[in-house]
Amino acid sequence: MSVLLAVRGLTKRFGGLVALDGVGFEIAAGELVGLIGPNGSGKTTLLNVLSGFYAVDGGDAWFDGIGIGGRTPAELSRLGIARSFQVTKVFRRLSVLENLLVPGLIEWRTSRREAEQRAHAILGGLDLDRLADERAAHLSGGQAKLLEFGRLMMLEPRLVLLDEPFGGVHPDLKRLMYDTIRRWNAAGATIVLISHDMSAIFGLCRRVLVLSNGALIADGAAAQVRDDPQVLEAYLGDRHAAATTA
Amino acid sequence: MSLIALGEQVLNGLILSVFYALAALGLAVIFGVLKIVNFAHGELYMIGGFAYYGVASVIGLPPPLAVLAAFALLFGLGLAIEWLLIRPVHEGKVERPDEYAIMITFGLAILLQNFMLSLFGPWTLRPPALFRGGIEIGALVVGGDRLAAAALGVVLIACIIYVLRWTWAGKAIRAVSQDRETAAVVGVDDRLVGMLAFGLGSALAGAAGALMGPVFLAHPTMGVIPAIKAYVIVVIGGMGSVPGAIVGALLLGQVENLATVLIPDTTRALAYKDAYGLVLLVLVLLLRPQGLFGERARRL
Amino acid sequence: MKANPATAAGALLLLALLVLPLAGVDEYWIYILTIGFYYAILAASWSLLVGYVGRISFAQVAFAGIGAYTSALATTALGWPILVGIPLGVLVAALVGLVIGRLCLELHGAYLGLTTIAFSEILRIAITAEYESTRGSLGLSTPGLFATTDRLPYYYTLLAALLGSLGVMWLVLRSRIGLFFNAIREDEEAAASLGVRVGRWKIVAFTLSSAFAGLAGGLYAHVVQLVSPAMMSLGEMGLILSMAVIGGFHNIVYAALGGLFLEVLLEALREIGEWRLTLFGLLVIVILRYAPNGFFGALAQRLGAGRRSRS
Fold it and tell me: Which end of chain C lies in a sparser environment, N or C, as judged by fewer CB atoms within 10 Å?
């Protein structure tokens, strides 16, 4: 399988704080990878760097052979990287449909009618089509998260970076989100999923990356990572980890 | 220009700086706590000038008391304005709070300025001065009225700094300025502090107007230029920073005076006088938006 | 556009405006309406920036001034025809708008507001100071658009300019560009993450808004036949803001109507002097607080224009 995302020695500093410390890994096309780590470990920072919101201080990252460093978020989006945000960022005063039309009409050759057709199809898959003309502000938290998915799907991205999409979402909608992510991956999208929801991570992802204090401390099969003493230590502290592995 | 004349210019610049600092301080406190720029600040300054006139000339109280009266009146007015107009911003009732605050304070400015114009016409009033006659400082001669006003202004600024540093209310104000949510969590009534901040900011503007009125005459549009100076100062010093406002005021006072003196084409230099500060404002906002003492805002 | 009572009312108003001069309305009011059209273009172009893109600017009157003074100086000092002067005014206003828009890209909210105030005031002070070229506060006399003293040709020219401007703005706003504008207003970062070229569209919006303001200013110069720095004062900016807010600044048509009606009101209430503007200030506050869609927005909703008040 070809490498879609390659990261080498990635470093990001904020003043004296080292948010990312020489992170390196490769993700092949078609993978569904989980990214976990305690709060403040640098997961969102990594996402922000990969999507162009933060500049790189050291190291490199390549998407399909193209350097990510120095590119704007809009450029990276057009290259095929899509990301969601931890805090829902739907266009509140636009309708649900219009939210999807924004990414849908980025490509000038796409006509409004084509974009609307695709949007309705995607909304249908997310059970949001009946709300197409509703203002996005009227959606529930979970529906808004699904709307964000829908927006990203309109871009037909090759790499999808999801930042904690399940926060505070109703269990029924969560199931729909899990299915959506699986279908998305099956359709060919490479997905990196940040989440604290361990059942989602270990249920969806075969491979898991673990960040702690800005460093990558584990990268492997989900089951192995779960039992990795370093991972336990990062989450629970030394004494607990020592107790379980003793 | 002779050394004495230059010295007098510098002194006048310093005196002006005190007045500007008072007005700018009010703006800084409001921005620090409520995170909004009060576009009606000049009109509050103006009402302070008229309040002083009313209390000193019409009612007949001695000038220093009249200044305090103006301070108190504007404090009350500020509380009312915050409660009626600004409050919705922090209660999540407004879709676009930044825009709303800008436009509603701008609308308030229109209302207040034209209200006073309707009542008093465009004519100027001369409120009683704090002190009459000239004062000699060595070889320099300076107007006693403005020196006395500046002295009172310095006292007021010192009091405010004391309040902000050492009293509980002041600490509450600084706490909410730094982190509203955390302050609320530890028990500070952030809404009350917001109201107090606007009241205090308005009172400082009113005091500045009360002090400047006798020196530069009171009229309904007297607040327009000082307001712009206040914006320039607060931007240069750093939005929400109290020491920044004071340093910025000193800087602006000197820049304006010296530019007029040092630029060879005097008529042109004078005609552009009000523009120097504005050019500084633009440069600061484009190159170093946090000003001298402000914090760099972090996005995402 | 859907057929509904609000659109019908609008069409009726348009018809009335077209027919009014021929119906024997007093010349004075024809002139007032002509000035009203000037304000309508300014209010609408301001609302494009503030209501649709979410970029607050206090420089609208400065661009009108640029258009006016460019055309005035071109026609008087250089002796060029008005038909060259006005387009030149639009071009200069658009270019300055492009530069300022580019400089202000990273500024938001009150910082943007203050910077635009500064630009506007610096320009006004400069024009006043350079009285050798501009005659400063005395004002510059400019030739009229038409040789006749008849008000009608001026009326129809400004009306045509207003309709044309609204038409162009509307075409842009209902296209995907308008959608991108709205997205930028709602959430810049999200828009960027979806591929919207935020910087480019912000600059386009600023340039467009300035160009229309320049057009209004250029025409104004040759209608009123006197340009002075007073047309670029903060007081005038306050008037434009009031017109757009009271009309409804989320919609270019409502904002334009605000401009037209408030100018008429300003004249109709002339006797009460400064109380007029006091009233406007009060209305701005009340509307922002309780009816943010503006007077015409609320009216359209009453007439059943539908859920959204965007054109």
Answer: N
The pLDDT value recorded for residue B300 is 32
- First-to-final CA distance of chain B: 53
Q: Are A120 and A85 in contact (CB under 8 A)?
A: no
Contacts of A149 (CB under 8 A, 6+ apart): A84, A126, A165, A177, A180, A184
Nearest alpha carbon to residue B75 among B26, B137, B111, B134: B26
Subunits next to B (3 or more Cβ pairs <8 Å) are: A, C
B199-235 per-position pLDDT tens digit: 999 999 999 999 998 888 899 999 998 999 999 999 9
Per DSSP, helices labelled H in chain A are: 43-50, 73-79, 96-104, 112-125, 141-154, 171-186, 198-204, 222-227, 229-236, 238-245
Give dist(CA A235, CA A214) in Å, integer. Answer: 14
Instruction: Tell which of C239, C285, C287 to mutate to test the B interface (max B CBs under 10 Å).
Output: C285
Number of domains in chain A: 1
* CATH at residue A230: 3.40.50.300
Q: In what order do the strands lie in the sheet with A207-212?
A: A81-83, A159-163, A190-194, A32-36, A207-212, A215-221
Cβ separation of A53 and B300 shorter than 8 Å?
Answer: yes
Substitution target from A49, A54, A85, A94 for chain C, most C beta carbons within 10 A? A94
pTM of the model: 0.91
Q: How many domains does chain B have?
A: 1
Q: Is residue A140 part of a domain?
A: no
Domain that holds residue A234: 3-91+159-245
Q: Which residues on adjacent β-strands are paired with residue A82? A: A160
User: Taking the alpha carbons of C286, C292, C295, C298 in that order, is the dihedral positive or negative?
Assistant: negative
How much is the pLDDT for B298?
Answer: 44
Q: Which two tokens stand for residue A200?
A: 């989602």
Host domain of residue C159: 5-18+28-302
Gap between the Cα atoms of B268 and A14, Å rounded: 47
Instruction: Count Cα atoms within 13 angstroms, Cβ side, for A80.
Output: 15
C177 in contact with chain A, both atoms CB, cutoff 8 A: no
Place of tokens 């269990």: A171
Average pLDDT of the segment spanning A76-87: 94
CATH code of residue B11:
1.10.3470
Is B132 within a domain? yes
List beta partners, residue C3: none
pLDDT digits (tens, 9 = 90+) for B37-71: 999 999 999 999 999 999 988 888 888 899 999 99
Question: Would A206 be classed as within a structural domain?
Answer: yes
Residue B196 covered by a domain: yes
**CATH number for C215:** 1.10.3470
pLDDT of residue A237: 64
B292 in any annotated domain? no
Residue A135 structure tokens = 């203002």
Mean of pLDDT over chain B: 87
Cα–Cα distance between C57 and C60 in angstroms, integer? 7
CB contact under 8 A, A93 and B300: no
Chain A contact present for B300, CB below 8 A: yes
- C70 near C93, Cβ under 8 Å? yes
Name the domain count of chain C.
1
Contacts of B274 in chain C (CB under 8 A): 121, 125
